[in-house]
Amino acid sequence: MRRRRVPTLPLVVAALVVAVLVAGLWVGGRHPGWLPGPVRDALVGDEDTRVVGEAIDKVHDTYYREIPKDRLADDAIAGIVTKLGDRFSNYFDPQEYRRFKQTQNSQFSGVGLQVSGRPDGLRVEAVYDGSPAARAGIRAGDLIVAVGGRSLAGVKQNEAADRIKGPPGTDVRLTYRRGGRTVTKTLERSTVTVPVVASQLRSQDGCKVGVVRLAQFSSGAHASVYAALRRLEARGADAFVLDLRDNGGGLVTEAQLVASAFLSDGSIVTTRGRSVPERTLRATGTPVVPKAPLVVLVDDGTASASEIVAGALQDRKRATVVGTKTFGKGVFQEVVELSNGGALDITAGQYFTPSGRNLGGRGVSRGAGITPDVKAKDDPATARDEALDAADKALGPACRR
After folding, report:
1. Nearest Cα to 173, choosing from 96, 111, 99?
2. pTM, entire model
3. Would residue 291 show up in a list of annotated catalytic residues for this protein?
4. Number of continuous H segments (helices) and E segments (strands) in the chain
5. Is residue 203 annotated as a catalytic residue, yes or no?
6. 151 classed as catalytic
7. How many other CB atoms sit within 10 Å of the CB of residue 73?
């Protein structure tokens, strides 16, 4: 049986095509200006993309000190997002994105503190049970003024907090003021799980009030809210307070599910964007507390997903809103992962409450927010929580029916 001869001409042509393609890719990557226009566009993208890559190359090759290309690329992406003029949009480099995902899962590596920014440092607002900070004796009200011997005066809150965070098992030295004393302690960082929900049972004029405080709308937060509501019901709660003060939001789907704990059907929020289809999220499942009197407690730190829940319950006449005007954020973000391990957290659209309200301002500016039905504000200088007391009183008449 004779072997069939394989023609050599097609093989030669194929080899030449591959060689030209490889050469074109090499030239296009290193010297795109040498290529004819159509070939250049096919191999290295359009002119705008090419110019960005060219600028990064030129800075890397020409600047008086060497800067890694990956850092230049990070800075270029961050610059694009900054130029949007949108404080809600962010670029996370790979390291920042890993921390962001930990936060969304209610975990981070640090010492277990909730803090707020002050001109001279970080004020401790809460210390998580069982955390390194709790074991070291740090208390709410302490003022952290230095980390690792470096002053925090004038440092932005996020940057100051990042100095405290770090890999589990590593040490961090904190200097804090308490009254007239200054104390320095070294703590060992660990993985800290943020308690998303806290609950308590209070009494107001013979009415048992179950209070559920939600810290953020992280993944699975609704399940913790449902469990807390059921425990309070089992203890005899007649009415409920959903405390969303200082809750800056989180996942829109979690907002839908938390609102569904109190609503049996109907609209909760409608989202609209240029690149995403209009969508109305409705109450789903069987509500945990379908009819019991309800107050939603808010303040100027109540934002985004928190405003979705408060706005839906107010529009649907399901709850009385007590507190101060909310933040006023009427836009939502989508996280778009990038090939370098980083991500864009980019404003993708606006949301609207069941009555059609958008709580933000024009575009991404801060807007009117939610106006409470009953105005109340906590005085941090007192031991009492005046806003929570006002929520109890607002429930009193409903409890006695």
Report:
1. 111
2. 0.72
3. no
4. 11, 19
5. no
6. no
7. 18
Token digits of residue 29 = 């990557």
Domains of the chain: 9-67 (no CATH), 108-193 (2.30.42.10), 197-399 (3.90.226.10)
Catalytic one of 74, 142, 238, 315: 315
Catalytic residue among 329, 345, 385, 392: 329
In order along its 401 residues, the chain shows pLDDT tens digits of: 333 444 445 444 445 544 544 454 444 444 444 445 454 454 445 677 888 888 889 899 999 999 999 899 889 998 999 898 887 888 999 888 887 876 666 667 789 887 877 889 998 877 887 889 999 999 988 999 999 999 999 888 878 888 998 889 999 999 999 988 999 999 999 988 777 898 999 987 788 999 999 988 988 999 999 999 999 999 999 999 999 998 888 899 999 999 999 999 999 999 998 888 899 999 999 999 999 999 999 998 899 999 999 999 999 999 999 999 998 999 988 899 999 999 999 999 999 999 999 887 666 667 789 999 999 998 876 768 899 999 999 997 766 65
137: left (phi over 0), alpha (psi -120 to 50) or beta: left
In whole angstroms, give the CA distance from residue 19 to residue 26: 11
Among candidate residues 304, 345, 385, 392, the one labeled active-site is 304
